[in-house]
């Protein structure tokens, strides 16, 4: 290399070193004071298969529910939208509870007052979704459930979906709010209104636990049952057409109290339900989740639940 070449090289190295030192000084002067690294959250051990917090039978309080604020104040800490994870162990189930709803504010308070402590004793992760039908058209339970499940699945990888009438209160926390991986579970086996007996063998109304992939396989509920009755029987037929059986926990603890109430306005028995039920086999693959249309008017993360207000149209 020529003398000229060495000179340029030295000059270059000197400038590079100077730049390095300057950068270091600037970094030292202007950077934020050194913060300690956040401590990684301790990895929790898995929750026990049988929660040690279970108490067995406990009578639900059916009337004069506290206000939402009172329920929240006495509750264990929840994340917005009514999401709970056990604080001391890693939950083995994560369950979205979906409630078809319209104009039953006091039932909802009775339900929330009972269900939060009940589920917390089971040490599961859960979130409560209320699918609230907007407007005055005839009520459509199946369609609301489709909406609620679809919206819940946008939020999380739930291992279990539970479709749950707001007027049914579980009496015994050994009735686990989790899912079987192959079949839907009918949780409300013994309801006081039916003298704690199953009204007929294929019934799948009230409270049902179903893994999300099975719900999708069944194409969800029919969207066509406007008014009371039949959508649950259609759902039961879908399960059997997909080769599934109904799982039922023992009657000794799959017990529920129903809040006594008058028939709701806009939910008269559907005179067409028998005809619709004759068409389940023909229609189930084209009527359900894959044909679902609605407008989500609002999604509010309340303290105790997620409120989905939805325009599902009318008959
Ligand atoms: C059934 C209803 C169900 C309801 C149960 C319990 C029908 C369809 C004609 C057989 N089914 O009779 O939707 O969950 O009663 O109330 O009406």
Architecture overview:
It is a single chain. The protein has helices at 3-30, 68-74, 105-121, 141-155, 212-217, 231-241, 273-278, 280-283; strands spanning 83-84, 94-101, 125-133, 160-164, 168-170, 185-186, 190-191, 207-210, 255-258, 295-301, 306-311. It is an alpha/beta fold and 315 residues long. Helix 3 (105-121) links the parallel strand 2 (94-101) and strand 3. The longest helix has 28 residues, at 3-30. The radius of gyration is 27 Å and the shape is elongated. The relative contact order is 0.16. 2-(butanoylamino)-2-deoxy-beta-D-glucopyranose binds at residues 199, 205, 229-230, 232-233, 273-274.
Major sheet attributes: 8 strands, mixed
Q: In terms of per-residue confidence, which ranges show pLDDT below 50 for 5 or more consecutive residues?
A: none
Q: Let me know the average pLDDT.
A: 93
Helices and strands: which structural class?
alpha/beta
Terminal CA distance reads: 90 Å
Shape: elongated
Which percent band covers the strand fraction? 15-25%
How many helical stretches? 8
Number of strands: 11
Helix content class: 25-40%
Cα radius of gyration in angstroms: 27 Å
Summarize this structure briefly.
The chain is an alpha/beta fold and 315 residues long.
Keywords:
elongated; three-stranded mixed sheet; alpha/beta; binds 2-(butanoylamino)-2-deoxy-beta-D-glucopyranose; eight-stranded mixed sheet
Write the layout of secondary structure elements.
Elements: H1 3-30, H2 68-74, E1 83-84, E2 94-101, H3 105-121, E3 125-133, H4 141-155, E4 160-164, E5 168-170, E6 185-186, E7 190-191, E8 207-210, H5 212-217, H6 231-241, E9 255-258, H7 273-278, H8 280-283, E10 295-301, E11 306-311
The chain binds 2-(butanoylamino)-2-deoxy-beta-D-glucopyranose.
2-(butanoylamino)-2-deoxy-beta-D-glucopyranose (BGN) binds next to helix 6 and helix 7.
